[in-house]
Structure formats: structure tokens, C-alpha cells
Amino acid sequence: MASTFESNLRMRPKTIAWFERLYVVSVALGYALMFREWRDRVEAYGDWQLFVFMLVISLMMPVTLALLVSRRRSRVALALLVLITWSMGTVMLAVAYASGFGSGTEVAALQAVAMAATLLPFTPSARAWLKTPRTRRVGPETLGRTFE
User: Fold this and answer.
1) Contact yes or no for 108/92 (Cβ under 8 A)
2) Quick check: helix, strand or coil at residue 101?
3) Contact assessment for residue 147 and residue 31, using Cβ atoms and an 8 Å cutoff
4) Which of 1, 7, 86, 129 is 20 to 30 A off residue 58, Cα-Cα?
């Protein structure tokens, strides 16, 4: 019989759930703000196809990493997400500070929320959950059945 502590490690801790919610919402609201200034951004890039490509890539990467952390317990994805979020967040906050928190303040605030969200997987309950292996392992027999 599994102890209460072991059974709790199978479920996602609240901090991981909040990390996922906060991070995805901050990214989604950031893109909503970018679409508000669609024409200015397209003119800055010069070509709307390039702008859309950059948006898709920059949206897919952080959201995919966040989901890998919160759903698949990937510590590599967590390290990459923290690196990307904190490097971009530092730049965004520095630009907002240099402009006197005029233009880009909303995006900088959302980036600060994303930065705060990346701290949640480092709480003790989240770290214990990240360290435990997933219960459903895929063995060689599953792979063999897939390609039969």
C-alpha cells in the first residue's frame, strides 16, 4: 500500500498547476497585446509572412516548454524555459525602465508575471513532484506493437 506522501506525488501539486495557468495566460495576453498593434509590427518587420512566422515560433516554443514541465515533468524543459523567460524578461523590463515605463509597460508586466510563474516549479512540493518518475513507462513491447 502506497503511503499518502507517495500517492500525493502522482498528482500534480497546486504550484505546478498555477505555474501552467500563469505562464500560459501571460503568453496569451502578451500575444493579444501584440495583435492590437498588428499594423505597426508588420511594418517594423517589413513582411507580414515573416512576422507571422516569428509569432508562431515564439508562441509555440515557450508554451510547449511550459506544458512539458507541467505535464511530462521535464527538468530539461524547465531549465530552457527559465533561461529563455528570464533572459527575455530582463531585456523587456530594462527597455520598459529605460522608456520610463511608457510604451511596452503592459508587455513588461506580463513578462514579469511569466518570470514569477517560472519560480513556482522550485517550491518544495513541485521539486519533489518533478523528481519522481512518471508511473506509465513505455517499454520495448509497446514500441514493437506500434510498428507491427
Assistant:
1) yes
2) coil
3) no
4) 129
- List, for residues 87-111, the tens digit of each pLDDT value: 988 887 887 777 776 656 787 788 8
pLDDT value at residue 137: 60
Tell me, rounded to whole angstroms, the distance of Cα 58 from its chain centroid: 11
Structure pTM? 0.74
Least confident of 4-8, 80-84, 116-120: 4-8
d(CA 34, CA 57): 14
Q: Residue 107's closest CA among 84, 82, 89? A: 89
Of the candidates 84, 109, 115, the one whose C-alpha atom is nearest the C-alpha of residue 97 is 109
Cβ atoms 73, 61 nearer than 8 A? no
Q: Residue 81 and residue 78: Cα distance in Å, rounded?
A: 5
Q: How far apart are CA 24 and CA 142, in angstroms?
A: 32
Look at residue 6 in the predicted model and tell me its pLDDT: 47
